[in-house]
Structures are given as C-alpha cells and as structure tokens.
Amino acid sequence: MTRQYSRCPDQVARCASVFLPFGRCALLVLGALVLLVCVPVESVFSGGSPPSVDAGPAKVLALPATDLTLFGHTNDPEDDPLAVQWTLVSGPAAVRFSAPRALTTTATFTATGTYIFRLTANDGASTAASTVTVTVDPASSQRAFYVDPDFAGNGDGTASRPWTALESSPTGPQWTVINQALAHGPVIVYFSAREAREETSEETTAEVNVLRTDKSTHRLTLDGMSRYNTDDTHPSWRDYAGPCKLRIKILRGSLSIGCHGTEPQYPMHYVTVRGFEATGSSGRVVFGGNHTVVEHMYIHDIAAVGANLMLHGSVESDGKETFGRLTDITIRNNRIERGEGEGIYVAGNYRTKAYGGWPEYGNTHSDVLIEGNTIHDAGLNGGEGDGIDVKTGLRNVTIRGNTIERLHPMPDITGIICEGVFGDARSDCLIEGNRICGAGTGIGFGGQNGVTVRNNVISNCAHGGVSAWGEPGLLNRDVQICNNTVYGNGGAGIGIGGCTDVTVKSNLVFDNDRPRRNGGYQLATYDSTNITSDYNLFSAPGPEPGWPEGPHSIIVTDIAGLVVDAAMHDLHLAPSSPAIDKGTDLSATGIASDFDGVSRPQGLGWDIGAYERKDSAG
Fold first, then answer.
1. 473 and 564 part of one domain
2. Distant-in-sequence, close-in-space partners of 560: CB < 8 Å, separation ≥ 6
3. FRET label pair with 485: which of 215, 228, 264, 449, CA 20 to 30 Å apart?
C-alpha cells in the first residue's frame, strides 16, 4: 500500500519534505513566501496502523557463559513486511549480535553489568520499538558445587571435597542440596574438565540425570568445560580455557546427560548444559524444559540409541501431555559426529496418528534457536540421519549458521527438515546462513505458514537443494526463498510444490539436476500460486516451462566464471561473475549481510546468491 506522497503538488514551484516527531511536513517556497505544512503521518500518509514489537522479558546471564538468546516478536495489522533491528542502548561494554536484523539473535558479552537493548520494527512508514534489560553477573553470583570423578575422598560438593558423580535420585543428598540452593539463587555445578596432571579429558561412566524439583526461575548451570581440579587428593580448582571437556561415556542406557522422556515430572526449566563430551553407544543428550540452553557440547560415536541431541516432545501418541508446550530453547555451538539417527531432533507433535501424533493437541514448542552447530556423518551408525529435524507444531524457529555434511543413509535424508504447523497459526520459521553438503535433500519443509530460506549454501546433495512440498489442504503459505547459492545437486536446485504466496529472488542456482532426470531444469514446480520470482541467475535451461520468471533474471549457458572454484567447493563469486550487482535490495525483509557476514551491497547493487563480492564496487 502507499504510505506517503512521492512528490509535492504540481502547482508548487519548489518544495522539500521532512519528517518531524508529530508527522510529515512540507516546506513550500512560493516566491518570497515560505510555508511549513504539517500533517499527522497516520491520518493521511500511512493509510494503516503501525507495527507492534516486543523485545521479551528481562533476562539474567552469569559467567562463565557469555552468550544469551534474545527472542523478539512483532506484528503488523496489514501484514506488511517488517525490517527489524537489535541495537545496544546502554551497557558497560560492546556486545556482538549473531544476527542484529533478525527477531532471534545471540548476544555475546565480554563484561558484567546491566545492558539495555532496543528492538525496532519498521513497516516502511512507521517504526515501533521495545526494550529489554539484560543483567550479566559474575560467576561468583552463583552457588557453586563441584564434581571430580577422580577425587580420592568422600565428597560433599564443595571445592575441597567434590562429589565424584551426581546420583540419579531426586531425594538423595546431592540433588536435595542443589534444589535447596536453587530456592535462594542461581547454582552452577562445575565438573572437572581435564585430568589433574595432563591435558586429557576427565572421564566418567556415570549418567548425569538432571532432577530439578525447585520451581523458581533461578538458573541451574551444569558446566563441563570452565574449571578443573589440579590435585585429586587435596583438591584445588583453576579456571580453564583449553580444549578438554568432561567426557561422559555411556555404553548402556539411554542418555549421557539430560532428562528421561519417562520422567516429565522433572523438566529442565531454567537449566543450561554446557561444555561436555558425550559418547559411548548410548551417550546421546536429551532434554526438555522452558528457558533451556545446550551449548558447546561434543557428541560423537553414538551407536545404539538416537537421536544424538534431542528436545523432548509435547504429547504422546495417546494424547497424554508429557513435557507440554515449551518455550525459549537454545541449541548452540555444538559439534555432533558419527551418530545413530538424526544429528539434532526437535520433537513436538506429529501431523497424523499413523505416525504417532495427536493432531487434536495442535501446536507445541515456540521460540527455538538452533545456531552455530556442526553436524558430520549423522546416521552413520544407523537410523534416519537427517541433520536437523524439526517436527510438527513448532513456531518461531530460527536455524542459523549450522554446517551439515555427509549424512546417511543416502539419498533418503535431509540436511534441514521442518514440518510446519497445525491450522492457521504462523510458523515464522527462519532458515539462514547454513552450509549443507552431502545430504539427500539440502533443505525441505512442508505445512509452513511463514517461512524464510535465505543466505544458505547448498551443494552436492543427491536430490534437490531447497524443496517445499505441499498438498491440497496443507499448503505452504508466505514462502520467501532469497539469496541462496545452490549448486551441483542431483535434482532441481529449487523445488516449489503445494505453495501459495511465494517469493523467489536473488538466488544463484546452477549445474543442478546433473543426471538430467528432469530435463536439467534448475527450478521445478507443481500446484503453486501467487508467485513472484525475479533477479535470479540460473544455468541453462533455467526454470521449467510455465514458471513465471521476471525480466531481470539471468540464464547462462556457460557456468565458467560464475564462482571462484565450484569443483573445490569455493562458491564465492568470481571477479567478473555475471551475478555481481544483478540482485535486488532485500533489506526490507531482514537481509543485511551475506553468508560470511559481509554487508550488502558492496558495489553498485546487491549481488545474486549467498555471497557478496567484496571488490565489486563499480
């Protein structure tokens, strides 16, 4: 819709317009007469209501953790696209955002103190804002307990007499004292990261079953990376920043650390698990709770029980609620290798009862961030090795900056798969900045109502690069696929099926459908409507016939010179690439930088694909 006049009235010889706090004003010059005419913005120029924005509740972070997730929410009465941005209003030190122009972002801190952040949302005519306060406390603000499997004495959890393990009883002395302490303030449990006398990971074969019964909002942190005991006989603890993490090796059982699906009465609300090595045939990590964080884990060689890292679902197949509708979930900076089943599995509900779901329960978890994880060889030891599998019913999910490679069994698995929502609820799913290589399909989704796929690099998958699937009564709605680089996949680079209200812009899609099973077409579609597609670059023959491609897109018959070295997986734009400056400005949709974090544009215009050429200035 038009939100402001584009020019002054014809009868005015000269004019200039400015925004003042109370509206839109025009400075009119008529000979020697100067008039300042002001009109309230909303009454005339906008023609609609401003957006609303919520930066979320106040949060507390305690060192040694330095990363905190901010979940923002917006709404526009006219469903206009919103450009959002996080900024630091005040605080004792600078803060780094993982994605300042996205609703969900990680804020990384270097100093304690009180910080105020502002989230703004602009619909092209008006701006709304909301602030949130974050308090970063020193490590000493938490009641500390200690665990060292090699301690030679009887432990009471103090630094001088650490426990050797955490017992699996909610009424035992260890969890009793931890829960009592949580009633009064935050608690951190330090597990010795390394051996006392050598740079080798400390190891335990005891499961860490989190049995929180305290109902307060004080955070419980289990930390396996930040401190270690230098003397097993006369304990003395030091801070640690080396490569070792406490290793939990479980050969029989169902998890290394977390909570059991059969014990939803002990949800991990306000719990952070950080910096453990989890291994052994049954050493997966499983958790469920509100306001939970799992970060800096090394999970590998799980062979008997998958998935490797799993968030529990909301409801059982008989309709019985288990962990319920969870919110504020962060899975960040974990490394997962050579596993059984999915790399990361986010359970919720299933769409049909035939697959174990309870559709009557409806939608499930919300505000989920999956960021900065590295997943190699998921499914190598059996099971369905999807890289990241997000089940039905989840809303406001952000999947960002993950590296996913070599999935098994080929070709029937997907790098990132998201199964949408029930009913008319917004899914608001953002998949950005991920690198996927060696999957069956790179990114797949269905049943979405609001999904954005941008700035991803997808190559060498057995089937397609980006695949949207739908069917009558289960369409994908409001689909944005922008600034992706999709190369060398076995099927179409982009597949659009069962979708409506689709935007496909500024994608670099070349040398896909290598077996030419589908005529070599780089984009395939079925049963989709209301499509806007333009400013893309395809290798010949381009999209399949009938696709409504716009006039600014490019089809090249020779892919030489498109990228630096496709054969060696360097898909940055070559110096004279025809993709340079040929994209379109998508800043209003939230894109501000490329896959590497380089700001857009660098030259006369935006580049096509996930990479912006740094030296493209003309």
1. yes
2. none
3. 449
- 606, 589 contact by CB (below 8 A): no
Distances (CA, A) of 552 to 107, 477, 555: 38, 25, 10
pLDDT at 197 over 90: yes
pLDDT of residue 517: 82
- Tell me phi and psi for residue 273, to 5 degrees: -115, 120
Residue showing tokens 């949130």: 132
Assess if residue 350 is contained within a domain: no
Same structural domain, 592 and 569? yes
The distance from CA 461 to its chain's CA centroid, rounded to whole angstroms, is: 21
236: number of Cβ within 10 Å: 11
* DSSP helix/strand/coil, 41: helix
- Domain of 66? 52-137
Verify that 21 and 97 share a domain, yes or no. Answer: no
305 within a domain of the structure (yes/no)? no
Output the pLDDT for position 350.
97
Helix (H, G, I), strand (E, B) or coil at 280: coil
Sequence letter at residue 23: G
Residue 249 Ramachandran class (φ > 0 left, ψ -120 to 50 alpha, else beta) = beta
d(CA 188, CA 219): 8
**C-alpha to C-alpha distance for 423 and 119, rounded to whole angstroms:** 29
Q: What is the mean pLDDT of the segment spanning 439-468?
A: 97
Q: How does strand 14-20 pair with strand 476-482?
A: unpaired
- The tokens describing 553, both together, are 């897109």
Q: How many domains does the chain have?
A: 3
Residues 41 and 56 in one domain: no
When comparing pLDDT for 31 and 268, which is higher? 268
The mean pLDDT of 378-406, rounded to a whole number, is: 98
- Distance between CA atoms of residues 389 and 407, nearest Å: 13
Show Cβ contacts of residue 431 under 8 Å, excluding neighbours closer than 6 positions: 399, 400, 416, 418, 443, 445, 451, 452, 453, 454, 456
Instruction: Tell me, yes or no, whether 499 and 446 share the same domain.
Output: yes
Q: What is the pLDDT at residue 26?
A: 43
Quote the CA–CA distance of 492 and 509 in Å, as a whole number.
9
Which residues have CB under 8 Å from 37's CB, separation 6+? 25, 26, 28
Q: Which residues pair with 480 in a beta bridge?
A: 452, 503
For the chain, state the CA radius of gyration. 26
Chosen domain end from 114, 137, 160 = 137
* Domain assignment present for 270: no
User: How far is Cα 462 from Cα 517, in angstroms, rounded to an integer?
Assistant: 12
Residue 147 DSSP SS3: strand
Q: Could you give the dihedral angle defined by the CA atoms of residues 57, 42, 503 and 413, in that order, rounded to the nearest 10 degrees?
A: 10
Reported as type and span, the H/E element at residue 547 is none
What per-residue string of b and e applies to 42-69 under the rule 16 or more CB within 10 Å gives b?
Answer: beebbebebbebbbbeebbbbbbbebbb
Distance CA 14, CA 189 (A): 70
**Cα–Cα distance for residue pair 586/536, rounded to 1 Å:** 13
Confidence of residue 39 (pLDDT cuts 50, 70, 90): very low
Residue 588, helix vs strand vs coil:
helix
Q: What is the pLDDT of residue 9?
A: 31
3-state secondary structure of 179: helix
Q: Are residues 479 and 572 in the same domain?
A: yes
Report if residue 611 sits inside a domain: yes
d(CA 134, CA 106): 12
